Amino acid sequence: MAETELAMKVPAAFVWDGTRYEIERILDFRFDTGFGAQKRGRAWYTRRHRNCYRVEASDGHIYDIYLDRSGHKREWVLRQRVDE
User: Could you tell me how far CA 73 lies from the centroid of its own chain?
Assistant: First the structure.
């Protein structure tokens, strides 16, 4: 993947409870292509397609977020605050 393509997928900020948080640093990155808790129908097209990030935000806290790339949607999800 070209560097510019990866840069377009890197998160810059997120909004949580009406407050915008800038991303200061990306601490970790991984692809998630697993099936999760799914028991049946484990075909390749039922896998998750996520770009997962652990980030440090402008409030000094650490968050896990991911870009859900399944199907035709592209949706960012705030999974959890890690350092609670």
Answer: 13
